[in-house]
UniProtKB/TrEMBL annotation:
<dbReference type="Pfam" id="PF00583">
    <property type="entry name" value="Acetyltransf_1"/>
</dbReference>
<protein>
    <submittedName>
        <fullName>GNAT family N-acetyltransferase</fullName>
        <ecNumber>2.3.1.-</ecNumber>
    </submittedName>
</protein>
<dbReference type="GO" id="GO:0016746">
    <property type="term" value="F:acyltransferase activity"/>
</dbReference>
<keyword id="KW-0808">Transferase</keyword>
<keyword id="KW-0012">Acyltransferase</keyword>
<feature type="domain" description="N-acetyltransferase">
    <location>
        <begin position="1"/>
        <end position="115"/>
    </location>
</feature>
<dbReference type="InterPro" id="IPR016181">
    <property type="entry name" value="Acyl_CoA_acyltransferase"/>
</dbReference>
<dbReference type="InterPro" id="IPR000182">
    <property type="entry name" value="GNAT_dom"/>
</dbReference>
Length: 132
């Protein structure tokens, strides 16, 4: 999904992070108020502003905004080690699936290049007790 699709998707909300009047990052989420299964489509921190806790502050502010969330989901490319560390070790997500040539992600066009041809990790963060 590209940025424009994310912004125009049902239930989408976009946020920007501003420090001292300067935009330093932002996020796009897709919220399903009926099921509580929400998706983080994009979280970014401006180049040069990274490693100052801004991404962490953005993420935890989003969590507080949606207290009825049952589970958050997001994906990041296999090669993005910094993102993998961030989602798992900083934000508390768990890797739940690895999409690749032998296990393709559903509904993704064949010409998708967002993963650099190396695959995507799917992450989930359960906010309520796991279903039985």
């Amino acid at each position: 999904m590209d940025i424009e699709e994310s912004l125009n998707a049902k239930g989408s909300a976009a946020y920007k992070a501003v420090v001292d009047g300067e935009m330093v990052g932002g996020a796009v989420v897709a919220i399903d108020r009926k099921t509580g299964h929400n998706h983080l489509d994009l979280l970014f921190v401006k180049n040069g502003c990274q490693s100052h806790g801004i991404g962490k502050k953005i993420w935890f502010a989003i969590e507080k905004m949606y207290p009825d969330t049952v589970v958050w989901e997001t994906c990041t490319p296999y090669f993005e080690q910094r993102n993998i560390h961030f989602y798992v070790n900083v934000c508390g997500f768990t890797i739940t699936e690895f999409f690749n040539a032998r296990h393709p992600m559903p509904d993704v066009p064949a010409d998708f290049i967002g993963d650099g041809g190396e695959g995507l990790f799917k992450f989930q963060k359960w906010m309520k007790p796991l279903p039985h």
